[in-house]
Specification:
The chain has one helix at 114-117; strands at residues 11-16, 34-39, 44-47, 50-53, 57-60, 67-72, 79-80, 86-91, 95-96, 100-102, 111-113, 123-124. With 130 residues, it is mostly beta strands. It has a four-stranded antiparallel sheet, with no helix packed on it. A hairpin with a 2-residue loop joins strand 3 (44-47) and strand 4.
């Protein structure tokens, strides 16, 4: 008999708390503003006789509240290869820089914030004066 939860990967909820200079969530309810998260490698696990692959995950950002998504934790020992991370990129937003790696470890807590994981490295690009 397997242990309870043996087939379920360790999950982390990532709050995509990207905001403007006033603290308002970035996004737009009238357009396709998206955050896309992909494993850095083809991370997979063999769980209860099934191969589990981690697909890319897209999250729509409406700009009314911060989006959140449940993702497999990067320190779940069942996923190989070891050392894989999530990468996040955005479409429909003018952000600097483009793609950023995320190490979402379950040991850091069940709910994590993008602003903490990236320590302020994802910010809106400033308009250049003409």
């Amino acid at each position: 008999m397997s242990k309870p939860g043996a087939r379920v990967p360790s999950m982390v909820t990532l709050v995509i708390d990207v905001s403007d200079e006033h603290g308002h969530p970035l996004g737009d309810p009238d357009s396709e503003v998206m955050a896309t998260l992909r494993p850095t490698w083809s991370a997979s696990a063999l769980t209860a006789g099934h191969i589990v692959l981690l697909p890319p995950v897209s999250v729509r950002m409406f700009g009314t509240e911060f989006a959140a998504v449940a993702l497999a934790a990067t320190d779940d020992e069942r996923f190989r290869p070891a050392g894989w991370q999530w990468e996040i990129s955005f479409t429909g937003l003018d952000l600097a820089p483009g793609v950023k790696p995320l190490d979402l470890r379950a040991e850091a807590g069940p709910v994590q914030h993008l602003s903490s994981a990236l320590a302020g490295t994802v910010t809106p690009k400033q308009e250049q004066a003409s």
